[in-house]
Amino acid sequence: MRAETRAETQVEVRAESVLRVLNARGLEVTAETRERVGSCKDLDLLDTWLDRAVTASRTEDLFADG
Q1: Domain of life, per the record (predicted)?
Q2: Of residues 64, 35, 32, the one with CA closest to residue 48
Q3: pLDDT tens digits, one per residue of 34-57
Q4: Contact at 8 Å (CB) between 52 and 24?
């Protein structure tokens, strides 16, 4: 159970990081985007979105291929 809790925490932190980067860059973060990022449980996908958040010109660019 401890590993499960750690994984859940990593997912939550990564999702918060994606949103934080978008906000810091002044990109619009809609409720839909918050919901999509916040409900994602795939750490690899969240990592992809975090990488994209650094260079995206629009929030929609995060979800370019999924």
Answers
A1: Bacteria
A2: 64
A3: 999 999 999 999 999 999 999 999
A4: no
